[in-house]
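TOKENISED FOLD:
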Amino acid sequence: MKKNKSLIMLFTCVALLVYVAQAASGDLHAQTSGAARQTEPVATQPPQDSAKAVRDTAFHQSARTGDLNSLRSTLQQGADPNARDVSGHTALIDAVAGGQIEAARVLLDAGAKVNITSSEGRTPLIEAAAQGHLDSAQLLINSGADLNVTQRGSGTALEAAERRGHNDVAALLRQAGARSSGRSVGDTVCVRPWKGDGYCGTVEAVNKTAFQVRVTRIVGCESGCSAKPLCSAGRTVGGTDGIAEGELVSTVSSCLTHTGVQP
């Protein structure tokens, strides 16, 4: 009996030692596996091909600077003449912005679309008008540019030229048939932001949001009307000493209206 108890105790000890050894081996394996997992490189997405982005950047830069050799080479390598850069501009808009008429000509010959817009809705012609580049504007008009596309904030090419004081470009656009926006030089506008009274006249000059209006009619202000200072250069309208017909008055675009009394 005593011998059997000794054998049982021995067997139990052996089993316990085996269990401990297996457990230790398992922990070591787990630690080793964990370490292996930690040292394994993290799987990443395959790197994007940056060659096209670099090429497009160089392509648009060539257009802006007028580097014709680089521009032609990139086009021969298959560059899309209508691709937009990270700013949303086409190479043709970049060429026009830089005053690079020969670069613009190369792009048009390569298939650049004359009326394609930037991501902000700007056409090459609006860019030429805003920058005052007469030769570029003429090239674009000859190439079939739409004269009356409107970009929010800049208006039409005619408006862009007038607001920047580029009268030669504005004259070219009118001669080509650009329609008036209703607030361009030669248009009739009314300045009636208070109680329906005020004055009407002909726009003689535009500089950004500032308008020079030749008064042709006083409306409802025979005894004089107080106006917002920005709308009548700080003066009253009508009456004995107020703004009268024939005067040239400075006002701003927010004061203009095209409804109501016609002069």
The chain has two domains: 53-176, 188-257. Residues 161 and 167 are 7 Å apart (CA to CA). The first helix runs from residue 2 to 39. DSSP finds ten helices and five strands in the chain.
